[in-house]
Design a protein that fits this description.
about 90 residues, elongated, mainly alpha, about 0% strand
């Protein structure tokens, strides 16, 4: 059932994209630059920018990625409840 719904959504999005691409050939262009008058320019531009964003995010991930034990013994998930400042259930009930 889940795959069926996913396929329907993909088909619907694809249909919308094709209709909008077809409408690009019908409308009168009102761009500021000559390149904006080309059919499907904004679709191609959006795709290229989106792809560049994906590749840049992968490169940025390599720059900021830290090892799993980067914080060592000072990580908050290594502390017990008392040193982290959380109260016990008995103290909350009082």
């Amino acid at each position: 059932m889940k795959g069926y719904i996913t396929n329907k959504v993909l088909i619907g999005l694809g249909t919308i994209c094709l209709l909008l691409a077809g409408a690009d050939f019908v409308r009168a262009p009102h761009g500021h630059f000559e390149v904006e008058h080309m059919p499907l320019f904004f679709a191609a531009f959006g795709f290229v920018i989106y792809a560049l964003l994906i590749f840049l995010s992968k490169a940025l991930r390599r720059l900021i990625l830290r090892p799993e034990d980067y914080y060592g013994d000072h990580a908050t998930d290594q502390e017990d409840e008392h040193s982290a400042g959380s109260e016990t259930s008995e103290a909350r009930d009082a």
